[in-house]
């Protein structure tokens, strides 16, 4: 029943880095440093938002991104837990991969002779098609 | 021992405990904090001037003295009013009404305490915020058996009241069960607030918060059990027309409430164990 040693995260509300990004980075760092382990329970969105005195939507966004990256798992009423493969998944930076993919694609298109505006129009059309 | 003598002893105990002993202990705690953690070294603890704290202390002391005097007057008055023919002719409501008045100074301190925390938050200019990465779960703070006992006692009260009214829902039944249900809802609300709500004191260390949460939840559970028990005792006393016993139970009710709330704070939350370093000017 006793609470054991606790892991804390800290955010700076005046840091230029968005709050949700600070949360994502700190939780990933905690996983990498094994301060939190696979299948460890995480606080609820409401608890974390109240403790940090930030909007619950900010915490919700951070948790969504972490879930997308398979660092955490939401298990409904049971709560949120660290993903079993969280440590290896933390090494994968989606934004970095996205930038690399786009750069490669744009390079290929430019080599084929496409102009900047043609590339932008095609990209926008592709995004709109995906949405619909 | 005649019932009236026993009642006098219990009522004297109520007057002494709630209007002298516990207020004195609380004043000692306030004085200890002011002497050992003065505003010069611990400015974050005093969002308002020290004069204001001392003024509140004086008002609290004065109120308790007035209520103590009222208690002694009631005691003397009751003694004069009772006559040789009917020594049990006491107003049953006196200990209850007086008990409610005795809690007023404590409620005043609670309200002022909340205002103090609000001011501390307004003056808190730190941009860093910390949070635990562990969920706060109920049974990490309180034994499941204590919660189960409170639930069982509540169910027992409902079953007992139904049995006594021969399974008819009377107005009295609705009032009793309704008031205990409302009280339990309040206790649940306080528990949820302590578990998941915002920190009142912006500087409070995590360890202190854990201690406070454990204490608050356990107190709520004990008081819930006691309130249910008190209602059962009231019903028994009314059913068997034990008028003088009822007046003693009413007096004991407030004393037990005080022991489980104020008494437990004084016993379990020693000032010396609280981390006051968080209120220093240079602390983060």
State the oligomer.
Answer: heterodimer
Structure annotation, total helices of chain A: 6
The helix/strand series of chain A, from N terminus to C terminus, equals EHEHHEEHHH
Secondary structure: helix percent of chain A: 55-70%
**Radius of gyration of chain A, whole Å:** 19 Å
User: What general outline of chain A do the C-alpha atoms trace?
Assistant: elongated
* Residues in helix, % of chain B: over 70%
Which whole number gives the mean pLDDT of chain B?
88
- What class, by secondary structure content of chain B? mainly alpha
Compute the separation of the termini of chain A in Å: 51 Å
The largest β sheet of chain A comes out as: 3 strands, antiparallel
Structural class designation of chain A: mainly alpha
Order of helices and strands of chain B: HHHHEHHHH
> Strand order of the main beta sheet of chain A, please?
2-4-3
What distance lies between the first and last C-alpha atoms of chain B, to the nearest angstrom?
61 Å
Strand fraction of chain B: under 5%
Point out poorly predicted stretches of chain B.
84-89
Largest sheet of chain B: none
Total strands of chain B: the figure is 1
List keywords for this structure.
heterodimer, A: 132 residues, mainly alpha, 3-stranded antiparallel beta sheet, 4 strands, 56% helix, elongated, B: 284 residues, 2 domains, 71% helix, flat
Mind explaining what this structure looks like?
The complex is a heterodimer of chains A (132) and B (284). Chain A is mainly α. Chain A has helices spanning 19-32, 45-52, 56-68, 86-90, 94-111, 116-131, and strands spanning 8-12, 41-42, 72-74, 80-82. Helix content of chain A is 56%, strand content 10%. Chain A has a 3-stranded antiparallel β-sheet with strand order 2-4-3. The longest helix of chain B has 34 residues, at 3-36. Chain B is flat, with a radius of gyration of 22 Å. At the A-B interface, strand 1, strand 2 and helix 2 of A face strand 1 of B. Strand 1 of chain A pairs antiparallel with strand 1 (128-132) of chain B, so a sheet runs across the interface.
């Amino acid at each position: 029943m006793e609470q054991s040693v606790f892991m804390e995260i800290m955010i700076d509300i005046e840091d230029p880095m968005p709050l949700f990004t600070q949360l994502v980075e700190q939780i990933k760092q905690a996983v990498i440093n094994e301060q939190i382990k696979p299948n460890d329970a995480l606080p609820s969105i409401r608890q974390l938002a109240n403790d940090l005195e930030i909007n619950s939507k900010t915490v919700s966004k951070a948790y969504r991104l972490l879930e997308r990256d398979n660092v955490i798992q939401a298990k409904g009423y049971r709560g949120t837990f660290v993903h079993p493969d969280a440590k290896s998944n933390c090494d994968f930076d989606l934004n970095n991969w996205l930038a690399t993919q786009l750069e490669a694609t744009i390079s290929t298109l430019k080599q084929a002779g496409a102009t900047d505006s043609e590339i932008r129009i095609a990209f926008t059309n592709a995004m709109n098609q995906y949405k619909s | 021992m005649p019932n009236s003598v026993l009642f006098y002893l219990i009522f004297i105990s109520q007057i002494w405990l709630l209007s002298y002993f516990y207020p004195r202990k609380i004043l000692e705690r306030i004085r200890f904090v002011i002497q050992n953690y003065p505003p010069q070294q611990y400015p974050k603890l005093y969002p308002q001037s020290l004069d204001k704290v001392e003024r509140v202390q004086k008002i609290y002391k004065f109120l308790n003295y007035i209520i103590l005097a009222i208690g002694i007057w009631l005691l003397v008055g009751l003694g004069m009013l009772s006559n040789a023919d009917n020594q049990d002719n006491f107003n049953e409501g006196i200990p209850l009404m007086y008990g409610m008045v005795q809690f007023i100074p404590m409620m005043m301190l609670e309200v002022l305490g909340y205002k103090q925390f609000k001011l501390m938050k307004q003056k808190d200019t730190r941009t860093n915020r910390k949070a635990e990465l562990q969920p706060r779960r109920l049974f990490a703070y309180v034994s499941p058996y204590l919660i189960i006992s409170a639930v069982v006692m509540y169910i027992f009260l409902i079953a007992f009241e139904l049995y006594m009214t021969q399974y008819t829902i009377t107005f009295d039944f609705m009032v009793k069960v309704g008031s205990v249900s409302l009280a339990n809802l309040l206790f649940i609300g306080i528990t949820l607030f302590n578990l998941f709500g915002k920190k009142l004191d912006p500087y409070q260390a995590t360890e202190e918060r854990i201690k406070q949460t454990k204490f608050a939840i356990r107190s709520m559970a004990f008081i819930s059990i006691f309130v249910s028990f008190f209602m059962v005792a009231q019903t028994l006393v009314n059913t068997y027309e034990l008028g003088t016993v009822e007046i003693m139970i009413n007096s004991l009710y407030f004393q037990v409430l005080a022991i489980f709330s104020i008494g437990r704070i004084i016993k379990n939350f020693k000032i010396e164990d609280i981390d006051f370093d968080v209120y220093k000017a240079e602390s983060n």
